[in-house]
TrEMBL record:
Name of the molecule in the record: Lysine N6-hydroxylase/L-ornithine N5-oxygenase
GO molecular function, one term: oxidoreductase activity
Cofactor or coenzyme needed: FAD
Pfam families the UniProt entry points to: Lys_Orn_oxgnase (PF13434)
Lineage: Bacteria, Pseudomonadati, Pseudomonadota, Betaproteobacteria, Nitrosomonadales
Alphabetic keyword roster: FAD, Flavoprotein, NADP, Oxidoreductase
Record-level GO BP terms: intracellular iron ion homeostasis
SUPFAM superfamilies tied to this protein: FAD/NAD(P)-binding domain
Pathway assigned in UniProt: Siderophore biosynthesis
């Protein structure tokens, strides 16, 4: 079997940025043989939330490379130059490109590494390869679109799988009911409900706000209930001093704190990243409800300070929610044709994916360079991207530190790879079975 220096699981922004970092390390004389596995059939970034008129909430300068190497070929500025749109973008006078344009930038960057990524394969598990009592390699098993199981061996591993939809407990029994879906599949699933008359959006963050406005502007004019436990929709705080928590050097500060201090920091600044839409979007929602008062057409309801107590799937009528008004203290039922759960993401999928390695892991804790701590007889370096918020701060799941983080991981990886050694390289390995 051919062996890779590094196998990456997932090929979204974080691992694309790492691929760029490793590519540019070649100019310094290093050559790490890396290969990535992505379950989507081609590159896509939040494809089902590519709503019209949506923009980035982060400066284009925090792209895949600029904060690490402003002269990189892979900066957003050079992308604009390559696409012959640089002058026009300058005339926009904005730091925040549309989400569609930034997705195109990411796809452009990813296209440079098509020979190093297997699309359309879902990684099933990662197994330890032992020599005597020492784990020396990792066997990564994946399944392609045809059901073929493929295996690859790697000396090191990086897991960048993004978030898994967080589904509130009361909705979990309805898994598989097409009338209830998470925001990560919004555009695809809402097509099934073009004729829906009553829709509920559950959540208080950017996605909930964007989906509400998208439904408000649809020609089918559905009635929409925006449901949240919060008393008000709070705007994200992007003021300069607060934004310093997303600076790369703030990661050092967070990591150096005690577990108690880290938790306090996360709580203090939680609304900079969660349940905090853009102010302009909040103003659009407020205006929509105000215009209802002007016209007397109460098409939508803002059910603030409401929580979902229970959910019942009715065969014909729709999905019935038992809602508790936290202000009034009473409960009432409402029935919907479709329910969108804009309820965020979990960042713990790596634990199930790496479960076979659990005997060698120190409770999946990481060091400063995002490497999982392991037992002395476990030689591979396993890195995490986007799953270290509790230890590295709120910026961990964002683009803010991506370029700098991949540089740190790159340096740590180079210390693990024995460059002078003559290694087998190449694209993997073998197909072993079909199921």
């Amino acid at each position: 079997m051919q062996i890779h220096d590094l196998i990456g699981i997932g090929f979204g922004p974080s691992n694309i940025s790492l691929a760029i970092t490793l590519e540019e390390k070649k100019q310094e004389g290093y050559d790490i043989n890396s290969f990535f596995i992505e379950k989507q059939p081609s590159f896509a970034w939040h494809a089902n939330m590519m709503l019209d008129n949506t923009h980035m909430q982060i400066s284009f300068l925090k792209d895949l490379a600029t904060m690490r190497n402003p002269s990189s070929h892979f900066t957003f500025i050079n992308y604009l130059h390559q696409k012959q749109r640089l002058q026009d973008f300058i005339n926009l006078k904005t730091f925040f490109p549309s989400r569609h344009e930034f997705n195109d930038y990411l796809a452009w960057a990813a296209s440079h590494f098509n020979d190093r990524c297997a699309y359309g394969e879902e990684v099933l598990e990662v197994l330890p390869e032992k020599r005597n009592d020492e784990v020396t390699l990792l066997r990564v098993r994946s399944r392609d679109a045809n059901g073929m199981i493929r295996e690859r061996l790697g000396r090191n591993l990086i897991v960048s799988v993004g978030g898994v939809p967080s589904i509130p407990e009361c909705f979990r029994p309805l898994k598989g009911d097409v009338r209830v879906f998470h925001s990560n599949s919004y555009l695809r699933e809402i097509e099934r409900h073009k004729d829906a008359k009553r829709i509920a959006v559950v959540g208080a963050g950017q996605s909930a706000a964007e989906i509400f406005m998208d439904l408000h502007n649809r020609p089918s004019a559905p009635h929409v209930d925006l449901i949240m436990r919060a008393r008000a929709i709070k705007p994200s705080d992007d003021s300069p001093f607060v934004n310093e928590i997303f600076n790369a050097d703030f990661t050092d500060f967070v990591f150096s704190r005690s577990e108690r201090d880290r938790a306090a920091l996360l709580e203090e600044f939680w609304h900079t990243n969660y349940a905090a839409p853009d102010l302009v979007l909040i103003e659009q929602i407020f205006n929509a409800f105000y215009q209802q008062k002007v016209t007397g057409d109460a098409r939508h309801r803002f059910l603030r300070r409401h929580e979902v107590v229970s959910v019942q799937a009715l065969p014909e009528e729709g999905i019935q929610l038992l809602l508790r008004d936290l202000n009034a203290g009473h409960e009432h039922c409402a029935t919907y044709d479709a329910i969108v759960l804009a309820t965020g993401y979990r960042r713990d999928y790596h634990k199930s994916l790496l479960n076979p390695l659990l005997p060698y892991m120190n409770n999946f804790s990481v060091d400063r360079n995002y490497r999982l701590k392991s037992t002395p007889n476990f030689r591979p370096a396993v890195f995490l991207q986007g799953a270290c918020e509790s230890s590295h701060g709120l910026s961990d799941t964002l683009l803010s530190v991506t370029a700098v983080r991949t540089n740190e991981i790159g340096h740590a990886l180079l210390s693990e790879v024995n460059q002078p050694e003559i290694k087998q390289t190449g694209t993997p390995i073998r197909a072993v079975a079909s199921r």
